[in-house]
Amino acid sequence: MPQPTPRKAPLFTVTADTLVAVDFTPRTGNRPPGPYRRLFTTPGARAFTLGNLLARLPMGMFSVSAVLMIAGARGSYALAGAVTATGLAATAVVAPWTARLVDRYGQARIAVPATVIAALGSLALLLCVHFDAPAWTLFASYAATATTPNTGGMSRARWAHLLKDDDGALHTANSFEQAADELCFMLGPVLAAVLCGTFFPEAGTLAGAVLLLTGMLLFAAQRSTEPPSQRRARTRSPFRAPGMPPLLAVCLATGAVFGSMEVVTIAFADAQGHRSAAGVVLALQAAGSCVAGLLYGAPKPSGPADARLPWCIAAMATLMTLPLLAASLTGSLPLLAGALLVAGAATAPTMVTTMTLVQRRTPEGRLNEGMTLAVTGLLGGIACGSATGGLLVDHLSPAAGFGVPLTAAAAALLIAAAVPRPAGGAGL
């Protein structure tokens, strides 16, 4: 005998004297969770992410805070720029060694004392500026901040440890981390400027040091998600791993895109009489990258990462023509802002795919070191791009300077396209 078809529960039932609400499940209960919601159901993920974001936010604050503090007290942007450049150079040298120690002895044992040293360096810089100490003390103090651990790299290492058997989820995690980077570098300078302008010139540096130390203590306390240390690892240096040198060259060229774009955009806004708007314009580029990173991480990746990278870089090189055209043909700052918003959409997918390849190319047990080498390449590219962009601005024009990020993106594309992919996947 056929069974009667079950009837759906009504939305509500009316009796003689009451109105009873019942089942709303058909409307909301069948929607599957999105990739980012599933990502943060991983045990311990929310806790270490919160601490890492607090520790990462000052990365976008320190240089701006230092420039505002030093220039305001000493009246010299040249001195402020030289001090921050010294810190950048020191970081490029010290960061890979710090990352190597993190891999060998564990994140908590190394990152916390390294962060304490960096925070003390920031406080020393603050005191030296406040009490009008000799200029050389500023360089020495800021150089001490080079021990700051690669917070983004350590977070990515945790995701790689937790999601090592799920490439799709790891792709989503890397996309989230890139979006977090963009968000921190978008909000950090604004927060620094507000603190220094509203309270006192040293407020940005002080707040950055407190956030860095607090966030790192919270992050390091999450021991359940920490990757195991590799004290006995006897693997080759990540720099010598197959496929890593050209990948680091791509990082160098990509960093030149970022560094030159920042300097040239500030110069262009200054030439238009709107220097104060440069931060907002650059924030739009970071916003475009942040949104693109989240969208890029939502679907499962199609094809291997080494095949996707040239396409991502090609999109970045193509979109870098927009700021050049907007500046050269119109001279309009609002149009440039819109062009940067669109151009930024290609940088996050490029960085997500690059970091995915760095994770795969790095020998086992040295993941933090491998990702820190990639960040060092980016920092070197930023320095080179800043210098080159400044030269073109001084000798030609701010509009012509937008040719530097376009050229750097084209160079990254040539590097990625010129390296063949071996059958074993050792190349890009």
TrEMBL record:
GO molecular-function terms, A-Z: transmembrane transporter activity
Record bears the keyword Aminoacyl-tRNA synthetase: no
Keyword Transcription regulation: no
Gene3D superfamilies in UniProt: MFS general substrate transporter like domains
UniProt keyword annotations, A-Z: Membrane, Transmembrane, Transmembrane helix
Superkingdom, natural source: Bacteria
Membrane spanning residue stretches: 53-71, 78-98, 110-129, 246-269, 275-297, 309-329, 335-358, 370-393, 399-419
Annotated coiled-coil segments of the chain: none
InterPro entries in UniProt: MFS, MFS_trans_sf
PANTHER family: MAJOR FACILITATOR SUPERFAMILY (MFS) PROFILE DOMAIN-CONTAINING PROTEIN, PTHR23542
Name of the protein described by the UniProt record: MFS transporter
Lineage: Bacteria, Bacillati, Actinomycetota, Actinomycetes, Kitasatosporales
